[in-house]
Design brief:
Elements: E1 3-7, H1 15-18, E2 31-35, H2 38-44, E3 51-54, E4 71-74, H3 83-93, E5 98-102, H4 109-124, E6 128-132, E7 136-141, E8 144-149, E9 161-168, E10 172-179, E11 185-191, E12 200-201, E13 206-211, E14 216-222
Parallel strand pairs: 1-2, 1-5, 2-3, 3-4, 5-6
Antiparallel strand pairs: 6-7, 7-14, 8-13, 9-12, 9-14, 10-11, 10-13
Length: about 220
């Protein structure tokens, strides 16, 4: 499975704490992309991306103030795709199956929602995708059986997750079963007009989710 890591321009926390494996010389490196201003956040941590993609309309001195990169792709300011989406499409063109979006949560609400839609875009192609910062891990799941791992090694992060929330991304999520959580459920239904699945808790090392229709937004949080 070929993995792609996208560094966004807004990150709560450090890249090193969110994806420590990127700084491990013994680990094979994924395809590392920087979405626009993400290149400066990467440079602060001496992380060298393979490709930088963006319009760079808010930055002066782009030619002299960048980390090393194999390629810089400039795009027009007026465009349909966000810089993060351009990175996603580039990763898909390179044959990537697994995507980690670093940051993209918090800050401007419209940007956060756009990034959630980008996760849904990847889910529509059947790709494994996660968006995370130091506190939060976000995924969008298609029907099937899924495991949410409480420990730090599966979805990333340096501390165990304590809480998770489930929301219908599509109008409804049906046939939902939850096992290994404080609040379990059997053959339940979520609707995108009511937050029934907010703030559940891990009581086992992992939680098992199973549902047969719809698209589901999953948000995991460390203790706070």
């Amino acid at each position: 499975m070929k993995r792609c890591v996208i560094i966004t321009g807004y990150i709560e926390g450090s890249i090193r704490s969110i994806c420590p494996e990127l700084f491990d010389s013994t680990e094979s490196k994924p395809l590392i992309l920087c979405a626009d201003g993400g290149y400066r956040l990467a440079a602060k941590e001496d992380l060298v991306p393979h490709v930088i993609i963006g319009d760079f309309d808010t930055f002066d001195g782009m030619e002299t103030d960048v980390p090393e990169a194999d390629q810089i792709i400039r795009v027009p300011v007026e465009k349909d795709d966000t810089d993060t989406m351009l990175c996603i499409k580039y990763g898909l063109e390179q044959g990537c199956d697994s995507f980690t979006i670093v940051g993209g949560l918090g800050g401007r609400l419209d940007h956060t929602f756009a990034n959630l839609q980008s996760l849904a875009y990847l889910a529509s192609f059947g790709k494994d995708a996660v968006m995370k910062d130091e506190e939060t891990c976000v995924m969008i799941k298609s029907p099937g059986v899924h495991k949410l791992h409480r420990g730090s090694t599966a979805e990333g992060g340096c501390r165990p997750y304590r809480r998770f929330s489930l929301f219908a991304w599509s109008p409804t999520v049906e046939g939902l079963s939850i096992r290994g959580a404080k609040y379990e459920l059997e053959n339940g239904k979520l609707e995108n007009t009511f937050p029934l699945g907010v703030s559940n808790e891990f009581i086992e090392t992992h939680v098992e989710l199973n549902f047969h229709s719809g698209m589901m937004l999953v948000i995991m949080n460390h203790q706070r």
